[in-house]
Each structure stands twice: as structure tokens, then as C-alpha cells.
Amino acid sequence: VWSNCLAFIKDNIQPQAYKTWFEPIDAVKLSGNALSIQVPSKFFYEWLEEHYVKILKVSLHKELGEDAKLVYVIKMENTYGNKQPFTEKIPSANRSALKSQDVDVPFNNKSPELKNPFIIPGIRNVKIESQLNPSYSFENFLEGDSNRLARNAGIAVANKPGGTSFNPLLIFGGVGLGKTHLAHAIGVDIKDKYPEKTVLYISAEKFTQQYIDSVKKNNRNDFIHFYQIIDVLIIDDVQFLSGKTGTQDVFFHIFNHLHQNGKQVILTSDKAPVDMQDIEQRLLSRFKWGLSAELQTPDFETRVSILKNKLYRDGVEMPDDIIDYVAKHIKSNVRELEGAIISLIAQSSFNRKEITINLAKDIVEKFVKNTKREVSIDYIQKVVSDYFQMDVNTLQSKTRKRHIVQARQLAMFFAKKYTKASLASIGSQIGQRDHATVLHACKTVDNLSSTDKQFRKYVEDLSKKLAL
Ligand code: ADP
Ligand code: MG
User: Fold this and answer.
1) Rounded distance, CA 450 to CA 441, Å?
2) Which molecular-function annotation in GO is an example for this chain (predicted)?
3) 107: CA distance to ligand 1 center in Å?
4) What atom of ligand 1 comes closest to residue 334's alpha carbon?
């Protein structure tokens, strides 16, 4: 039955997608009109449900009639104390052992809830699900200048978890730049190389929630014990712990225990340790023991390769000039970059339109408009000095020449308008003494733009340039 379904699916989707999403599936059982298929992970199952549920349905109806049912069996990753590698084929006699998580999926039900897969009490052991997303691999994490240090440190850690000086490894950077992806990639690679190691990925938010629950239920010690048996602990978005002293305290103890026992800790954060607020000093100093590696915004070439890789994996073809166009206009965030490509594909397939540069323009425009662009003070100074054909040093100089003073005041005015920086910080970044100078500049610009026509034109032109 299943091979007939596969043949049908193969004829109807992209070869790359077929290879990625259907070849790894094993049919395990047919009882009546219910077919059980085994998929490698929870993520894999969710992806199938999200992207291929229709074609699965059609193919199964053809084989088994309108009442056909599909049961997903999710292969378990790592049983604590069980050395069976994740990728190994399981002999059919052992299959029942894997079925701790059958998910019975009626087709009409959009997204059935999985039982919480976090801890599955077995008869003898406790299984710890790694909570890793296998598609967040190193292979899929494209390297560029913006992430080279962090990516390579991640690879070093994955080769020798706990055995490098990068412990903890802290990955930091702005939203949508790949912190979560890279953190998973390290875990995925470790599971691949050391299947017997217990790896756990968890967000700081969920960690906090679990801790609070454990206190309520009076089993704080179980909570601590659970974390102390982990070999590789990955905590995402540790800035979430700020101000949460109880959770910080318990994390401090867990961290020390793991570190002393040569276990690997991987953390991500939206800020460098020096900039983290309301995190206890003793924790911050621990964070600095290892390596802090920053993820910066990727350059154009890296953005293009990220897009190409994504399209390739999804089995979608797209002309180069369109890829270039998207990469050129969406700069600050990889998540948005992917979002734009996804909606481009969606638009073209819903409306059966060809993907043209005009369609790309429409979509990119929507993306750029929808996202509040963060303009930096450096960028403002650059735009203003370019506009007045001077260089940034001249703009910042102490000179009292009128046109330079005006340019400088405009830069301060826009910095106040477009950034969240304090007056004092704007002043010092634009080479001024104090916040009073900035305040004065803002007032002057306001006054002049309502009295001086030429000046008003400067403000309008610059607003356009800065607003993109
Ligand atoms: P963050 O956790 O920093 O907010 P994510 O890890 O969620 O960012 O990344 C956002 C999206 O961008 C994800 O889909 C991720 O796969 C993708 N991404 C980020 N950096 C890269 C990269 N270097 N190569 C490929 N994909 C990337
Ligand atoms: Mg993240």
C-alpha cells in the first residue's frame, strides 16, 4: 500500500522534496484501513502535516478508500542509557519498543496535539527527548563573515563537547540572526557523533516555567537532579532570566555541577554579557568563562546563499535576479529574508502566477514596510554627510562653519527622531559635549524648518532617504 502511495506522491512533488520528506519514512503496520508510518522525529511529523497532508490524503484514499486513516509513529531519539544510534535501522522485532508515541491522526483535524514529549517515564529508564530540530543543522547554517567565529566555535564544541575551552559557549546577537538555529545545530551534531550523550535543548522561558512548577509541586530537588544528569545543556535566550532571581540561583547550581563534571553548556542571548541587565554578577562571570561569539547581520553574499539553500531544500526553483533582488532589499534579519521568499512562493502558487521581478517588488515592499527598520546613528551620520557631500569626520568636527553646523544639527535631530538613544549618547556619538547640545540642535531644526524653505527641503529629502 505504502509503496503505491509513494509512487503517486513521487509523481506529484519536486524530486528534492520527495527525497527529503518521503524517503526517510518507513511503513510499519497496516490494520484494516489504518496505515502506520514511522517518521524520524516530531519535527518531521509536523512538517509533513503542514506541507504534505493533502497529497498524503489523496494517495491514501486511492489505496484504502475514503475511511483511510494514517497513524504516525515517531522514532525516539536517545533513550537515556541506551546506546542505539539515532539513525540505525531498527529490526522489526524491536519496533514496538519505539511506539511510545503513536499519534493517531484523523485527516480533518488540522494539528493534533502531541502528548508532552519532554519526559517519557519508561519501565526502567527515563527517556530524555533532546527537543532538537534536525533541520537546524550545521549544513543548513550557511557560513559568512557575520557568523564565522560563532559557527566554527560551535563546530569545535560539537566535536568535543565539554572538552574545549569554549565552555560555556555563549552565542549572542539580534533577532532573527540564527542563534536558535546554531544552538540546535550544535546539539544535532553532537547527537550524531555521540548518540549515547544526553543532549537537551530548552528555552530559558520554559526552563523558568519548569522551575516554578517544581517549586509549587514541592519537587525542586527532582528538577535539579534532572538537569544534573544531562551531558550537553543548551539554554536559548538566557536574557529571559533577567530579574528572575530564584531561577538564576537554581541555574547557577546546575551550571556549576555540569561545568565541574566536564559537561558542555551552550547559551544564547540577545546581548553580550556586559550588556545584560538584572543578571547576577556571579552568573555573568560564569558566562564569561568560556567564549562569547557574536552573530552579526549577514552580508549580501551570505544572504544570497541562505536563500538559495532554502529554495533548494524546499525543491523550488527561482531565477537568480529575483533572489538577488530579495537579498539586496531585506538586510537586517534572516527570518524576514526567509519570510519574504516563502510568501513569494506562496503568492505565485496560489495565484498560479509566474514569479516575476514585479511580484518580488510588491512582496519585498510589504516586508520592508511592515518591519520597523532600526536606523543606527552611524547610518544617519553617513546619510547626512553624503547628502551634504562632506565626510563624517567633517560633520563631527568642532568647526562653526554654517553649513557644517547645520549638517551636524540635522544628524542630531534625526538621531533623536529615529533611534532610542539617549540625548547624551547621541551627543557623544556625534562628537558633541553633552545632551544640551543635542536638545538645542533639535529645537533649531524645528524652528528653521518652519521658517526657512531651503532648510525644510533638507529635512524632507533626508527624511525620505532615512525612511528608505
Ligand atoms: P534567532 O534565534 O537569532 O532569533 P533563528 O535561529 O530563529 O534566529 O533564525 C531565524 C531564521 O533564519 C531561521 O529559520 C534560521 O534557519 C535562519 N537562519 C539564520 N541564520 C542562518 C544562516 N546562517 N544560514 C541559514 N539559515 C539561517
Ligand atoms: Mg531564537
Assistant:
1) 14
2) DNA replication origin binding
3) 31
4) 12
Domains of the chain, with CATH numbers?
A: 2-112 (3.30.300.180), 148-295 (3.40.50.300), 300-370 (1.10.8.60), 377-467 (1.10.1750.10)
Half-sphere exposure of 427 (CA within 13 A, CB side): 14
Best mutation site among 171, 181, 184 for ligand 1 pocket (most ligand atoms within 8 Å of CB): 181
Does 253 score more than 70 pLDDT?
yes
Question: Atom of ligand 1 at shortest distance to CA of 302?
Answer: 23
Distance from C-alpha of 230 to C-alpha of 249, rounded to nearest angstrom:
18
105 phi/psi in degrees, rounded to 5: -115, 105
> What is the maximal distance between C-alpha atoms in the chain?
89
User: For 136-195, how does the pLDDT look when each residue is reduced to its tens digit (9 = 90+)?
Assistant: 999 999 999 999 999 999 999 999 999 999 999 999 999 999 999 999 999 999 999 999
The answer, as to whether pTM is greater than 0.90, is no
Q: Which helix H or strand E contains 170, and what residues bound it?
A: strand 169-173
| CA-proximal residue: ligand 1, atom 13 (nearest) | 335
pLDDT digits (tens, 9 = 90+) for 395-445: 998 888 999 999 999 999 999 888 888 888 898 889 877 888 999 999 999
Q: Is 96 a residue whose pLDDT tops 70?
A: no
Contacts of 323 by beta carbon, 8 Å cutoff, 6+ apart: 304, 307, 308, 311
Q: How far apart are CA 137 and CA 183, in angstroms?
A: 9
Cis peptide before 161 (omega within 30 of 0): no
- Please, what is the angle between helix 453-467 and helix 377-387, to 10°? 130
